[in-house]
Design a protein that fits this description.
It contains 5 helices and 7 strands; from the N terminus they run ββαββαβαβαβα. Strands 1-3-4-2-5-6-7 form a 7-stranded mixed β-sheet, with helices on both faces. 33% of the residues lie in helices and 23% in strands.
Length: 201
């Protein structure tokens, strides 16, 4: 995928603050520190478009990035980086505000064409399973991406894949994309999945 431009547009916490452009939106969800920002940067061939932090909970708003590509199907779109679920080094009151903000966006946003759910390849947690089930329930089954696979040995991949398929009760393990923001493994596969979702609408 050739990226012509990728720019941060705005941060929002309420619907009236969302972009008004009627463009496809691709949301990225996952537990805190799973690698959302690193994955977005890797997809877009940028080093620091989405700010990467080692501190869980750094993202506290919905961050919209305007993406322009050379592809006719998805020439213009928004990537939306959502706050991570699960553990985060922020106050309980802030975490409680995230829930409604995220659910409101994912449940009601008409421009949302695909959700990319990132799961750490080193372990599946209850938050991952609950999020997957909820997204599927509201009619927004996510694209599942297993991040940080460069930290796994080849012999460790199949056991993780088997566990993830069982945990999410998936019928097809081919629906899972292994991804490494470090080596860019999985980049083409993820772009293909995003394009297919947009093309199907």
């Amino acid at each position: 995928m050739k990226i012509n431009s990728a720019d941060f547009l705005l941060s929002s916490v309420r619907p009236e603050q969302y972009p008004r452009e009627q463009l496809p939106e691709i949301a990225f969800v996952g537990r805190s520190n799973v690698g959302k920002s690193s994955t977005i940067n890797s997809l877009l061939n940028r080093k620091a478009l989405s700010k990467v932090s080692v501190t869980p909970g750094k993202t506290q708003t919905l961050n919209f990035f305007l993406i322009k590509t050379a592809d006719k199907i998805i020439s213009r779109m928004f990537f939306v980086d959502l706050p991570g679920y699960g553990y985060a080094k922020v106050s309980k009151s802030v975490r409680q505000q995230w829930g409604p903000m995220i659910e409101r966006y994912l449940s009601n946003r008409e421009q949302l064409l695909a959700v990319v759910q990132l799961v750490d390849s080193r372990g599946v947690e209850a938050h991952d399973v609950n999020t997957y089930q909820w997204l599927s329930h509201i009619g927004c089954p996510p694209i599942i991406v297993a991040t940080k696979v460069d930290k796994l040995k080849r012999s460790e991949r199949h056991p993780f894949l088997k566990k993830l398929v069982q945990s999410l009760e998936l019928s097809d393990s081919n629906k899972i994309i292994f991804y490494s923001a470090k080596t860019h493994e999985g980049r083409l596969e993820l772009w293909k999945a995003i394009r297919q979702r947009c093309e199907a609408v």
